[in-house]
């Protein structure tokens, strides 16, 4: 058929037997737009549920689909899982680059030691915020090219870095951005000069803050290591981007111009021994305390060289930091007065979130305003990041996220706070892998990550994937049903047995009834297929139950059909359990006018008030027994009830047909009247 110029449309009408009518107009779906992918998708697949059991079922169902549909584009897969599903409290995230590899990762999670629990357990309820503490790295972790992947992928990062570059050029006349974008900038292994390293680190960290904010992640509290505290002040709302960049640029230039060259060395020693080591080498000081066995000594280059030689002789491990000044020592004192003058010109605002300073490890509540004295002391005195981490622990964070170019503080936090999930935003040499991994960790911790930020430019589309695997449970209204009481004497001949009966012939019989009702052969359908999957409804199954009743002389209620069986096999087993105890033996003949009674049942004694008149020819029958037979087995649907239901349905259908006929006649009359009016002259129009 030739392609039409306009999309095809169709009308659908549904007339309900209860009087509800639904009318829909459907239009052909538009052709999908050509893919315009400009970025690789995150290799993160999200799965969640509202319970541990449902999570395992969802994982299992998705794994099976990925085994079969190995050609699914990764962008479509992760987009559908992230944006096309609501996220329950029980969550996992697996990472791989292909559907097959993702299926393997899901299968490994299912086969793990605790397949019904996520790594972090259920996330907090929806009204409880996920506590994310931002920790900002110091200067020693910065390397050339740290922002290259971010700058090329995210517009918000480019916006921040370009603005900082313009301000830095205006303040100093020197470029700053080239070092952040070019991995080969400078000599390999060379130290990044302090004058540009400090504003560059501030710009990178502020760009990460803006990126996470766009992704829906804000800080519960902030803390910074050394110069990282300036970006922490920006995240807390105390510094604007322009003022923070200006302050960082002046700080770096003052240290370059007024402070003698120096060096810093990290040693794995306890605080007492680290202080003794510094005292044994004139000019060296304990500049940083990161943890119980993690400290940094700093001083003149010659003194640091002698100390490193001594550490080599003793076999003590150490690491020289990539800096060119001895920060937080007496070497910084020549620049403090000029720095105080710069600080006096900066308009600080009150912090909007908890601020934990590495100067003393104290928590400043929202409303605290930084002052020049605090930041001058912060530049001169040792960094007490060990105290900051203890204060962070007091905030009971769900995630401790590092904002910086590497994993330096994340490693420190894992050693000091093993119970807290510590994750980095970037990992040197791995592109955006760490960023996507941290987004997955935040998601599993309960944070509402806006995945649109990370999926933009990937060209991902939503595709059909398995839906939610509901955990079916019965919820009774009122008291739950108990065991059935004794069957009335009037139906003793239909007493059922619980003995196991061969269900093969019964199953064939039931499938035959279903085939007749559906008008197609269902004898080859698996016996465990649910009735609803076959397309059955309650009206159709009423006729099937009627045929089963006539054929096998048993009663099955509609509630039992759908709640207790639901499949041909289970229905056959229920029918088998209710067959007469000895179907081959004929029933004992009954005397006319009598009601069969159980063998062990005592003969009721009629009362005078309930006895029949003496003129009756039949023997007197107690009225109480007759009443008992009329109310017995009320859980069954009787033939009379079925007939009444069918009659009501027929009446409703006739009423609807009559209404439709009347509407059609009215429509025809209106059309004739409209045509007649149009044919009259203007002055003869009938009003």
UniProtKB/TrEMBL annotation:
Q: Where is the composition biased (Low complexity)?
A: 580-598
Q: Which GO terms describe its molecular function?
A: acyltransferase activity
Q: Does the keyword Aminoacyl-tRNA synthetase apply?
A: no
Region: Disordered, residue numbers: 579-622
- List, alphabetically, the InterPro entries matched: Ac_transferase_dom_sf (IPR001227), ACP-like_sf (IPR036736), Acyl_transferase_dom (IPR014043), Acyl_Trfase/lysoPLipase (IPR016035), Malonyl_transacylase_ACP-bd (IPR016036), PKS_assoc (IPR032821), PKS_NRPS_Biosynth_Enz (IPR050091), PKS_PP-bd (IPR020806)
One Pfam assignment:
Acyl_transf_1
Gene3D superfamilies according to UniProt: 3.30.70.3290, 3.40.47.10, ACP-like, Malonyl-Coenzyme A Acyl Carrier Protein, domain 2
Record-annotated Carrier domain positions: 501-579
Keyword field: Acyltransferase, Antibiotic biosynthesis, Phosphopantetheine, Phosphoprotein, Transferase
Keyword Membrane appears in the UniProt entry? no
Q: Which PANTHER family match?
A: FATTY ACID SYNTHASE, SI:DKEY-61P9.11
Name of the protein: Acyltransferase domain-containing protein
């Amino acid at each position: 058929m030739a392609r039409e110029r306009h999309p095809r449309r169709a009308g659908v009408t549904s007339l309900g037997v209860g009087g509800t009518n639904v009318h829909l107009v459907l239009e052909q779906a538009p052709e999908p737009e050509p893919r315009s992918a400009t970025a690789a998708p995150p290799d993160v697949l999200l799965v969640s549920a509202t319970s541990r059991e449902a999570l395992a079922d969802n994982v299992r169902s998705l794994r099976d689909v990925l085994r079969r549909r190995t050609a699914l584009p990764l962008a479509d897969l992760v987009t559908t899982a992230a944006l096309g599903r609501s996220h329950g409290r029980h969550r996992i995230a697996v990472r791989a680059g292909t559907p097959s590899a993702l299926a393997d990762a899901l299968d490994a999670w299912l086969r793990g030691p605790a397949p019904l629990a996520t790594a972090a357990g259920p996330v907090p309820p929806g009204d409880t915020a996920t506590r994310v503490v931002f920790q900002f790295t110091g200067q020693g972790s910065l390397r050339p090219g740290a922002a290259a992947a971010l700058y090329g992928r995210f517009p918000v990062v480019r916006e921040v870095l370009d603005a900082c570059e313009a301000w830095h050029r205006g303040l100093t006349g020197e470029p700053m951005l080239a070092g952040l974008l070019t991995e080969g900038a400078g000599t390999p292994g060379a130290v990044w000069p302090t004058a540009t390293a400090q504003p560059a680190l501030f710009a990178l960290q502020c760009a990460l803050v803006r990126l996470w904010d766009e992704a829906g992640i804000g800080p519960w509290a902030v803390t910074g290591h050394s110069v990282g505290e300036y970006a922490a002040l920006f995240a807390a709302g105390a510094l604007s981007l322009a003022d923070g960049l200006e302050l960082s640029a002046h700080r770096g230039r003052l240290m370059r111009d007024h402070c003698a060259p120096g060096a810093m060395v990290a040693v794995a020693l306890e605080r007492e021994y680290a202080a003794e080591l510094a005292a044994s080498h004139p000019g060296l000081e304990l500049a940083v305390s990161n943890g119980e066995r993690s400290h940094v000594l700093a001083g003149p280059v010659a003194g640091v060289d002698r100390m490193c030689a001594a550490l080599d002789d003793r076999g003590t491990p150490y690491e020289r930091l990539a800096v060119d000044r001895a920060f937080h020592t007496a070497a910084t004192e020549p620049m403090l007065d000029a720095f105080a003058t710069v600080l006096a010109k900066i308009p600080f605002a009150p912090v909007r979130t908890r601020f934990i300073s590495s100067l003393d490890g104290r928590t400043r509540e929202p409303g605290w305003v930084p002052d020049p004295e605090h930041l001058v002391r912060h530049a001169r005195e040792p960094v007490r990041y060990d105290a900051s981490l203890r204060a962070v622990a007091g905030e009971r964070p769900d995630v401790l996220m590092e904002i910086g170019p590497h994993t330096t503080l994340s490693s420190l936090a894992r050693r000091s706070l093993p119970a807290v999930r510590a994750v980095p935003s970037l990992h040197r040499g791995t592109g955006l892998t760490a960023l996507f991994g941290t987004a997955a960790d935040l998601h599993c911790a309960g944070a509402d990550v806006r995945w649109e930020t990370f999926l933009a430019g990937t060209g991902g589309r939503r595709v059909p994937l398995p839906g939610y695997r509901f955990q079916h449970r019965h919820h009774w209204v009122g008291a739950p049903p108990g065991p059935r009481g004794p069957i009335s004497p009037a139906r003793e001949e239909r007493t059922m047995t619980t003995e196991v009966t061969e269900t093969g012939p019964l199953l064939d019989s039931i499938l035959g009834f279903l085939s007749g009702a559906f008008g197609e052969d269902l004898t080859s359908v698996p016996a465990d297929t649910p009735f609803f999957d076959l397309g059955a409804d309650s009206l159709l199954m009423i006729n099937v139950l009627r045929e089963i009743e006539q054929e096998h002389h048993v009663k099955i209620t509609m509630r039992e059909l759908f709640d207790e069986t639901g499949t041909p096999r289970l229905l056959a087993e229920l029918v088998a359990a209710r067959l007469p105890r000895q179907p081959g033996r004929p029933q004992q003949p009954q005397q006319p006018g009598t009601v069969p009674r159980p063998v062990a049942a005592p003969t009721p004694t009629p009362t005078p008030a309930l006895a029949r008149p003496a003129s009756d020819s039949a023997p007197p029958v107690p009225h109480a027994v007759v009443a008992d037979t009329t109310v017995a087995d009320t859980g069954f649907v009787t033939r009379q009830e079925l007939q009444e239901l069918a009659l009501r349905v027929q009446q409703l259908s006739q009423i609807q047909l009559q209404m439709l006929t009347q509407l059609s006649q009215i429509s025809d009359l209106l059309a004739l009247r409209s045509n007649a009016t149009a044919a009259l002259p203007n002055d003869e129009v009938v009003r």
